[in-house]
Amino acid sequence: KLILAIETSCDETSVAVVENGEKLLSNVVASQVKSHQRFGGIVPEVASRHHVEQITLLLDEALSEADVRAEELSAVAVTYGPGLVGALLIGVCAAKAFAWANQIPLIPVNHMAGHIYAAKVEAKLAFPLLALLVSGGHTELVYMENDGKYEIVGETRDDAAGEAYDKVGRVMGIKYPSGKEIDELAHIGDDTFHFPRAMMNEDNFDFSFSGLKSAFINTVHNAEQREEILSKVDLSASFQAAVVDVLAEKTMRCLQKFPAKSLVVAGGVAANQGLRERLEQEVSQLQEEVKLIIPPIRLCGDNAGMIGVAAFIEAEKGNFANLDLNAIPSLSL
Ligand code: ATP
Ligand code: MG
Ligand code: FE
After folding, report:
1. What is the ipTM of this complex?
2. Phi first, then psi: what are they for 291, rounded to 5°?
């Protein structure tokens, strides 16, 4: 089975061809990062325009790279939420047109399910599964008894982890999105600031990152007023230590309450080296056998390949859409 997948929920236009829900024959990603950088964040209107310009080119590119003709496809899948409404609509319209023109089924996919299923490219998923979803807009712990069954058991009460990275990066003068660079600086520095670990020891699986963000910003501003220059590497290391501590602590505690055979870490922040190393170490110390599965770095950020993998599960459940499919910006799992 060959599925053509389309992803346009945010600032990456991407089209992929996926075979049998696990093999990526192609996965073309056009990032708009450069166009948004000068604004220090994503401008929705700019994102939509770029998607319009790119989508048909990428469709051709994904098919030719996979060496697949449109007639050979069994379905077309598309992200219909969550994300920016204008951006999502470009992908949804393109997918509908493609499905209609080629008379093939349309599969609606939740972007966050896509992030989780990116892990399937790395290794076979064993259920029950616990997923730590950490991205630009979400921070959630998701328990899955089986394929395609999602239960959100914890989530952020304010900022997402990736969002916090991007906001403190801005204060340090790091270009958007700043997660990757802070991760690199953190490896050179030390946790000298001891920022707060909000909710870390509370008896729930929720997160909060806005206090950490404020503490960080206050520290930098107070230093500026004293005309003191703080070490960027130590600031980065301290911030990352706080984020990783909270994410790892809560995830490991969640695993006690929701025993799982695999622990998946997914979303843009799953690319974080500090988080990967910490969870590897924590999981290796467990008495029970838990398989830690993290997608390869290139599949942690937004891409259509992961949408094609998740779409296969939706198709198996018989979950198809009509041509009246609409984008749902606040869609949840
Ligand atoms: P969502 O998936 O919630 O809709 P999104 O699609 O915008 O949001 P992703 O593309 O999954 O988010 O992830 C982007 C985020 O990942 C950005 O906030 C970015 O700073 C962060 N990020 C990328 N690499 C790293 C890294 N190595 N360490 C920490 N954060 C990172
Ligand atoms: Mg992005
Ligand atoms: Fe995403």
Report:
1. 0.98
2. -90, 120
Cβ-count burial of 12 within 10 angstroms (0-12 exposed, 13-18 middle, 19+ buried)? buried
Phi/psi for 151 (5° steps) reads: -130, 115
Atom of ligand 1 nearest to the CA of 275: 28
SS (H, E, C) 149-207: CCEEEEEECCCCHHHHHHHHHHHCCCCCCCHHHHHHHHCCCCCCCCCCCCCCCCCCCCE
pTM tops 0.95: yes
What residues are in contact with ligand 1 under a 6 Å CB criterion? 9-10, 82-83, 111, 115, 135-138, 162, 165-166, 177-180, 183, 267-269, 271-272, 301-302
What is the number of the ligand closest to the CA of 331?
1
pLDDT tens per residue, range 180-191: 999 999 999 999
Q: d(Cα 263, Cα 290) in Å, to the nearest integer?
A: 7
Is the distance from CB of 207 to CB of 197 less than 8 angstroms?
A: no
Considering only CA atoms, which residue is closest to atom 2 of ligand 1? 135
Least confident of 42-46, 51-55, 78-82, 116-120: 42-46
How far is ligand 2, taken at its centre, from the CA of residue 3, in Å?
23
pLDDT band at 41 (very low <50, low <70, confident <90, very high): confident
Residue identifier of the C-alpha nearest atom 12 of ligand 1: 136
Q: Convert the pLDDT of each residue in 24-39 to its tens digit.
A: 999 999 998 888 888 8
Report the alpha-carbon angle 97-101-102, nearest 5. Answer: 120
